[in-house]
Amino acid sequence: MKGAELKPEDLKGLLRGLLEKGVVDCLVMPHRAGKTVSYMLVNDPDKIESPESAIFAPSFVVNAANLVKGWTIKEKVGIVAKPCEIRAAIELIKLKQMDNESLLLIAVDCSGAYTNQVYTENYADIGDQADSAKMKALEGKGVLIREACAICANKLADVGDIIIARAAGENLVAAGLTDMGVDALTTLELSLEDKDLERTAEKEKIAGDAKAKLDALPQMGSLDALEEFLHDCIVCKNCRDMCPVCYCKECFFEQPLGKPTGGDLLNLAELRGAIGLPPGQLFYHLTRVYHVSTTCVGCGACEDACPKDIPLTRFYPVITQKVQDIFEYVPGKDVEEPLPFTAYEEEELEDKLRD
Q: Which residues contact 26 (CB under 8 A, 6 or more apart)?
């Protein structure tokens, strides 16, 4: 792939140039505010802050794709975010929730992330970046990365239009993965040359570590175990609202059948003799996991949003990964790859059914 080596302090000029040269009309990018990190929408090049303290920060507040979901606008939007966020944006493009021609997707290498609360409380120890050695040392002190990040096998930037990858030492490489990405870097007058960023060995190690963490998670092998797992759920639907790939304009669970109240509840109670309150915990989560079964990127935003601290990473990414394995589908890998449920192949699951 074509890319250019940069120093961390060159990132500001790169992002500023995207606005100055008219490659994008605005940028959604990480923003440092003291000990914390959030996202900022910038359309004035003079408002671009030095991003090196925020762009690799191991903190997760919200999936950036959720912030721009539904932006089917003519203006060109650049999104600078972690791989899971860029993968979610690619799935939203396939779901017709965003326009591919109106987006420039810039994926940044990730080592895993802490919840913003944990990151803020431990900023003195974590700092602006964290590698596996630092994270291991912090784990010994009880400072743990998000479970979704521990089981993530896709931490290295390898999707989108442009990737910003860590190179030797403190240097970075900005490389174009698509024609749009290469054109953007060319417009910035960077000296592009062939770069080998396959990083096969590093990806295999990350995948191996992620699988070991995944296999170590508690398993739910029965309906009773699942009901016990979800028994604290108050059906607030925060997990739905913060999920980047949950996009329906009219959710079934805001309709009378999905959200029974008053007389509807009494009718159900009369049919069954008794009904739990709040109603539909299991029905809600089983329906939602089916809904996102092929598009879930395992970002863990659902778990972060749960006010009851239910470890939803042990349910959503775990279940959806099993479905994705059946279809041999990696969500967010390629904007041209059709969604499994929308592409018919005769007898495509015959071998799975025989197993």
A: 19, 41, 42, 43, 75, 76, 77, 78
- Residues 262 and 340 reside in one and the same domain: yes
Residue 343 DSSP symbol: -
Could you give the CA distance from residue 60 to residue 149 in angstroms, rounded to a whole number? 10
User: What pLDDT is stored for residue 272 in this prediction?
Assistant: 84
Q: What is the dihedral of CA 297, 154, 138, 106, to 10 degrees?
A: -90
Confidence (pLDDT) at 318: 92
User: DSSP 3-state helix, strand, coil percentages of the chain (rounded to 5)?
Assistant: 40, 15, 45
Contacts by residues 307-313 (CB-CB < 8 Å, ≥ 24 positions apart)? 307/234, 307/236, 307/238, 308/232, 308/233, 308/234, 310/229, 310/230, 310/232, 310/233, 311/147, 312/239, 313/146, 313/147, 313/148, 313/151
Does one domain contain both 177 and 257?
Answer: no
Residues of the chain with pLDDT under 70: 279, 352-355
Q: How many domains does the chain have?
A: 2
Looking at the fold, whether 46 and 145 belong to one and the same domain comes out as: yes
Same domain, 153 and 230: no
Residue 255 DSSP code: S
pLDDT tens track for 193-226:
998 888 999 999 999 999 999 999 998 889 899 9
Tell me what pLDDT residue 354 has: 62
Same domain for 141 and 44: yes
Name the nearest CA neighbour of 351 among 317, 330, 326.
Answer: 326
| DSSP SS3 for 105 | strand
Give pLDDT, residue 238. 96
277 token code pair: 């309150």
Residue 65 sits in the same domain as residue 43: yes
The per-residue pLDDT for 353 is: 64
Of the candidates 295, 284, 293, the residue with the CA atom closest to the CA atom of residue 338: 295
Domain range for residue 21?
2-215
Length of the chain, please?
A: 355
Task: Tell me what pLDDT residue 274 has.
Answer: 83
